[in-house]
Design brief:
alpha/beta, Aspartate Aminotransferase, domain 1, Aspartate Aminotransferase, domain 2, seven-stranded mixed beta sheet, three-stranded mixed beta sheet, 17 helices, 14% strand, binds pyridoxal-5'-phosphate
Amino acid sequence: MANAQGFQHTSRLKDCLARQAAEHMGRIADQSGVTVERDIDMRKEASDTWDRFDRHPGYQEIRLIQEVGARLGAGNPFFKAHEGVAGATTRINGREYINFASYNYLGLSGHPSVSQAAIEAIGRYGTSVSASRLVSGERPLHRQLEAALACSYGVADAIVFVSGHATNTSTIGHLFGPKDLILYDALIHNSVLQGVALSGAKRLAFPHNDWARLDAILTKRRRLFERVLIVLEGIYSMDGDYPDLPRFIELKKRHRAWLMVDEAHSFGVMGKTGKGIREHFGLDGRDVDIWMGTLSKSLASCGGYIAGETALVEHLRYRAPGFVYSVGMAPPMAAAALEALRYIETHPERVARLQDNGRLFFTLARNAAIDTGYCAGFAVVPAIIGSSLRTVNVANLLFQQGINVQPILYPAVQENKARLRFFISCEHSAEQIRRTVDLLADEIARG
Ligand SMILES: Cc1ncc(COP(=O)(O)O)c(C=O)c1O
């Protein structure tokens, strides 16, 4: 009943906003046949609409969602403040929760040896390098981290940026232009889409994981463009599945395209020793042209990287705007990522535990008839609930029972595919996972 009312509210508010927008557009259209008087009207209308942040459609959409949430008592599921390290458990408002809302997959954020490395780096270099690395922001830690990343991929070099999102935006935005074509999986991350838009290249999404459709597109269109880039994720962040990478490598070679793989959620997660999708499939690192990853997840830091051949990395080092015109990575962040990388090398048992936990959560959820979509049972397990409202309700009910999980709502996913996204940690116990899936199945069944 509450849901039905919710939809009435939602559609009424939506209608109201749509009417306001249509009226507004109509008024402007009317005024395009210019008389002085109408010009004055238009200026009045413009000053009411175009210089007010609260009239921005993006803001109005947020307010609409918040209003509906408040009327239905769903509350705001975002911006919860964690009062300590957020790992397999966390503390929010003084209460302990089993936590499935952080990407601390290997439990290395908050690990003593990683924290110690960051503290030592602060002691030696301070908290900021205060300049772009190109001018005076370079520290030995930066190159040590990049060498270690390149080594993990078995490629010539790597470069680190201060943000994972900026890594994709700046790299793709810089390397490609209007004569190029970028083909990306339909479920690709926003940071890739931003880079594609910035580049001005011709862009096309191909259906999720559908290498055969991609092959057909390339057969038809490759010759119309100069450079062609294909972009995939190692593990898809909203769905928890992965591409058949060898197939994509075969076709990118045949069509003379470049292949980029975003390993934000697969590095540290896939492969026997956590070296990602490359290790999972037993591939040569040089089979992929542009390896991208983030330092914020398994590597317990903040930032992103590109790994590949020397000409690629050196080009970015001197030209990528997000690197050249931005500060170098903060010393404690570089030190933390470097120590996390070393730690994973010597502790593959953490990776094995993470994989066991992902498999356990996924198997239990599937057995309980929870819709896990395309999930392959690694560290990201979605539970697809349906409407945004119902998803927020289930998240709230779980929260009341001591489980913290983030709802993913429209527009991040389709409105009928709103979901709870469970991020698994190697530090979750089997007991925590079983309890969570049991409660989740109960709440979903209760509707
Ligand atoms: C697939 C993917 N790429 C890039 C990013 C951006 O990384 P960061 O949050 O480290 O900036 C994310 C963030 O979650 C992601 O999921």
